[in-house]
Amino acid sequence: MRGPVPSSAVDFGAVRTEFELVEDFPADVLAEAQASADRFPEGREDRRDIEFVTIDPPGAKDLDQAVHIAAEGDGYLVRYAIADVGALVAPGGPLEAETRRRGQTMYLPDGSVPLHPRPLSEGAGSLLPGEDRAAALWEIHLDAAGEVTSATVRRALVRSRAQLDYAGVQADFDAGRVHPAIALLPEVGKLRAAWGRAHGAIDLRLPAQEAVEAPGGWTVRIEPRTDFDAHNAQISLLTGVCAADIMLRAGVGLLRTLPAAPEDAVADLRRTAAALGQDWSRDVTVGDFLAGLDVSTPQGLAVMTDAARLLRGSGYAAFGTVAAPEPPADRGHAGVGAPYAHVTAPLRRLADRYATEVCLAACAGTPIPGWARDALDDVAETMRRTNTLANKVDRACIDVTEAVILAGRVGEEFAAVTMRADQVLLDEPAVIAPCTGGPPEGSRVTVRLETADVASRKVSFAYEKALA
């Protein structure tokens, strides 16, 4: 087994050049970000009494969200503080124009190309621990079953108490010493996941690759996921569902959409599951079936991979605008089980700032700012464009790392799992690549490396034999 390749061997700069990713900002944009200050200090409610915490990857500095969950009768009160970027970016200025061009932060293994200049995204706007920060404060009341009974958002002043990371939170929870602010997070997360499945949500649990710099250099691995990752994601989804509901009632907004799974695709998945020996009763929904699937087995992984066909056609839909006066006919999100909007990552994603402004105005009973409403169509198009770009950048970074790691090993054999009849996942390193020869789906196999071309970023294998 060979280890990582030297850091100098992997050139992510070439990816930046290919996709024209430039971290530096124009001087006027940077100056505005450095001088950014709260535009709404007088009307901001002081909620520094709430003991918020953030949960992010280790070393993160652009902290969008802080959470606090409390019991409320037999239900729950979820408080979610989101960085109030709309209070820091003046409409019509050079900073707003630049962020509308960039759309979102682009993440590469060796660093990010940020949506906002770092003095804002990692400084004045970030919910860093111990710092007073402007926030859009969501208060969401849930009953004992996790159903929303009411939700509102308003501008507030908050102060995070601690910056936590997923692995550390999971370890603390397992050891019985979890922070009080999130002690109820697993309980609420499970309730909301069950709520989603009851409303038709489909959650794909596919292995996500990441290129990481290990002590000896770069390698690829499957991104580790803890239970707390899933629970924390449910709080973001919950907030997005509440935001969509507020905007739909206001008649103005920006939704994140995903069409429902076609019936013929579900029928095909049932046939795949049966062929791979995965029991799926007729009275069990596709969401419940996938939630119970053991993806640590080759057969379970193959079925989950096939299920990706169920979710196609994600997009953004503005409404209440000149171009789109009415909400879209298909306004739901199949991965959530309800209409949904992005509002929880405004430091990293453009759409969240504008959707949040709509929600703030709707909850306050004030007119929706013209600058926010007028931008919705353009923001939706920018998000569609930059989502495609982000996917290409991510794939290019993984591809080049895989090719460098495997260069010089053409002809070698590797143990793998067949995800599809034309795709395998190696045991080590965690390469996902095309494979010829028709390896049996959902099986452990041996494959031979046929191509590892760094210039084209292409890696491919050929099927050799099935393993017992």
Structural class, please? alpha+beta
Query: How far is the N terminus from the C terminus?
Result: 21 Å
Number of strands: 17
* Rg calc: 23 Å
Helices, by number, come to 12
Q: What is the subunit organization of this protein?
A: single chain
Helix fraction? 25-40%
Query: Which band does the percent of strand residues land in?
Result: 15-25%
Order of helices and strands: HHEEEEHEEHEEHHEEHEHHHEHHEEEEE
Largest sheet features: 6 strands, mixed
Shape: globular
Regions with little confidence, pLDDT below 50 for 5+ residues: none
**How confident overall, as mean pLDDT?**
96
How would you portray this structure in words?
With 468 residues, the protein is α+β, with helices and mostly antiparallel strands. The protein has helices at residues 13-18, 27-34, 94-102, 118-124, 166-174, 185-198, 227-250, 263-275, 286-291, 298-307, 350-364, 370-406; strands at residues 45-46, 52-55, 65-72, 75-83, 106-108, 111-113, 132-142, 148-164, 209-214, 217-222, 253-257, 315-319, 413-420, 423-426, 432-436, 444-453, 458-466. Strands 1, 2, 3, 4, 7 and 8 form a 6-stranded mixed sheet that branches. The longest helix is centred in the last third of the chain and has 37 residues, at 370-406. The model has no long low-confidence stretch (mean pLDDT 96).
